[in-house]
Write a structure and sequence with these properties.
- The structure is a single chain.
- This protein has 569 residues and is α+β, with helices and mostly antiparallel strands.
- Among the domains are: 184 residues, Nucleotidyltransferase, domain 5 (2-Layer Sandwich), CATH 3.30.420; 149 residues, ATPase, substrate binding domain, subdomain 4 (Actin, Chain A, domain 4, Alpha-Beta Complex), CATH 3.90.640.
- The chain is built from 17 helices and 19 strands.
- The strands form 5 sheets. Strands 12, 13, 14, 15, 18 and 19 form a 6-stranded mixed sheet that branches. The protein has a 5-stranded mixed sheet with strand order 3-2-1-10-11, sandwiched between helices.
- The N terminus is likely disordered.
Length: 569
């Protein structure tokens, strides 16, 4: 009784920010920290395990790999880039003067005489099997010695769990990797022993388009395997509105391997408006390398599939790529190639419009054929049945159909008994019955199919998402406030470029007085807005009813998520 009373008392006490851990897993990076922290710890969301002798080998790449293009596809990509160069040539700078464009030939000529400056031997070292007991985590994965054949796993790919047929690709293996990575970060970065986690609570930031089975397993991971004293889930787009201090917004999350859009109002992500596109910052990095290769990139030994070169290309892209039309001509780009055990090489090169063309792929998605053709939009899938949750959406839909059918049969029977000569009433009842059943079946499968048939550019995805809002007034509100978050939103000038594209396409009847595109609200890093929003949400008094505790989870299971989840389950 005393234990129960203590537990009830702890549930009613306000949450202390120091005892609340916010976990935001991504396809590339993991952000984790206490709710009281100003910024989270950010590490590479990967794990490397030594390969067993003669065991299978699996290495997830840091960058999404390119594919071999057919002649037709390669021609289409080159023609698209040529068209984009023509567009840049016709643009004006902010002062109204023509903008001088650069060609690949100009850049190649400027870099022809580039000779790298050799420095001292790098003090970095590869991590070998002899240095590792069981695993390597975070940025050290980049230095996992390939000769020792580590298996490298990224638990998330394209914004979802990385299920695949290779070694370490099963759901149980991925959950074990997540337990190891998150547990390691909590112990080593936050300084919290695993035995003390029962006194802490966790908030897990999940994608706006989610798989219910995966969420069920992740809650079990937090409460049972890791041993937190409580947890709740929040969608990343909803968390982003909390971080930005907005009540309603069309949220656009530009991640490393996916771009997602949805409309959020009053802390609810509208299901019909959710779109996920399988391209992101990694695709832009590969497109950037494709362009600079054709412009005489002097670092000819660069191999994007190598973890260190992939990380280097990402740093160059993040440091220099932009969408500011006032930056024109050839620009100086400096970078250092550092490999363990060999002298460093310092490059000083020139790059021209390639710095704009790479991020412009967000508006000309044909060029992302470089990393594969299958990048079409996806919506929220219908729930699959769960034996632990018998009263799920499928059950409610079937019982609703049965109830409607019985009510209509009773209605038609009573009408027929009142007027046995006229059978038209009965026929009308039958037609109405079919109509009701058909409409319920339509409810069971929301109109997500159009999203799966097209490859949307960024502006098209926003327009399509807002168009699926339930009312005209909501559409106007969404067009008036668009929030850009994620690491891919850091390109200077992106908001202006997107604003100009949208103004030409917003339907006249929905045009607000002002369309505001917000990047980095409250001077925050766009990639940390969702994490910060989840931290704010965890400390709200209204969030107390969201917490799920281990004893409840063991007793009730997944049905708790239907009652407690702050989104439509």
């Amino acid at each position: 009784m005393n234990t129960s009373a203590t537990q009830e008392q702890s549930q009613s006490e306000p949450i202390q920010a120091q005892t609340c851990i916010i976990i935001h897993p991504g396809s590339k990076n993991l952000r984790i920290g206490r709710a009281s922290d100003v910024n989270p710890h950010t590490i590479l969301h990967a794990i490397a395990r030594p390969r067993r002798p003669k065991g299978p080998l699996h290495r997830d790449p840091v960058l999404i790999p390119t594919v071999v293009l057919s002649k037709e596809n390669k021609l289409q990509v080159d023609e698209t880039y040529q068209s984009m160069r023509g567009t840049l040539q016709s643009c004006l700078r902010s002062d109204g003067t023509p903008r001088p464009a650069t060609s690949a030939q100009q850049v190649a000529l400027a870099n022809k005489q580039c000779i790298p400056i050799q420095g001292s031997v790098s003090k970095l070292q590869y991590v070998t099997k002899s240095d590792v007991e069981d695993y390597i985590i975070g940025d050290q994965v980049l230095y996992a010695h390939s000769a020792d054949q580590f298996n490298v796993h990224f638990p998330f790919r394209h914004g979802d769990l990385n299920i695949h047929a290779g070694v370490g690709g099963s759901l149980s293996s991925i959950l074990a990797d997540l337990e190891t990575i998150w547990g390691h970060c909590i112990t080593n970065l936050l300084g919290i022993p695993k035995t003390e986690l029962k006194h802490y609570r966790a908030v897990l930031v999940i994608p706006d388009i989610y798989n219910r089975l995966f969420l069920k397993e992740l809650v079990g991971l937090l409460l049972i395997q890791l041993g937190f004293g409580g947890c709740f889930l929040v969608q990343d787009h909803v968390a982003a509105t909390f971080g930005a201090g907005l009540g309603a917004a069309c949220v656009v999350d530009l991640g490393d391997q996916k771009t997602s859009v949805s409309c959020v109002e009053d802390a609810l992500s509208q299901r019909a408006t959710r779109i996920r596109l399988d391209y992101g910052g990694s695709d832009i990095t590969q497109a950037f390398y494709y362009l600079i290769q054709r412009a005489g990139f002097p670092y000819t030994e660069c191999q994007p599939q190598h973890p260190l070169d992939g990380a280097l290309l990402t740093r160059i892209k993040e440091g220099y790529c932009h969408l500011n039309l006032d930056f024109c001509g050839l620009r100086d780009v400096n970078f250092v190639v550092e490999r363990p055990g060999v002298p460093t090489l310092r490059y000083h090169i020139k790059i021209g419009d390639e710095l704009l063309l790479a991020p412009l792929g967000l508006f000309n998605t044909e060029v992302f054929a470089l990393t594969g053709q299958d990048k079409r939009g996806q919506g929220q899938a219908n729930a699959s049945g769960d034996p632990e949750d018998p009263h799920d959406a499928n059950y409610l839909r079937e019982t609703s159909r049965r109830a409607h059918k019985e009510a209509l049969e009773n209605q038609s029977t009573s009408a027929a008994s009142m007027d046995p000569i006229d059978n038209s009433t009965n026929a009308g009842g039958q037609g109405e019955e079919d109509l009701v059943v058909d409409s319920l079946a339509a409810d069971a499968a929301p109109d997500d199919q159009p999203q799966q048939q097209l490859l949307y550019s960024l502006d098209q995805a926003i327009l399509h998402s807002i168009e699926r809002c339930s009312s005209d007034e909501m559409k106007r509100r969404m067009y008036s406030c668009i929030l850009l978050v994620g690491g891919g939103a850091k390109f200077e000038g992106l908001s202006t470029w997107l604003h100009n594209r949208l103004l030409l396409q917003i339907p006249f009847q929905f045009r607000p007085e002002q369309t505001e595109i917000i990047v980095g609200p409250k001077e925050m890093d766009p990639s940390m807005v969702a994490w910060k929003g989840a931290a704010i949400m965890s400390c709200l008094e209204s969030a107390q009813e969201l917490w799920i505790r281990p004893t409840e989870w063991k007793k009730i299971g997944v049905r708790l998520l239907r009652e407690r989840a702050p989104f439509y389950w």
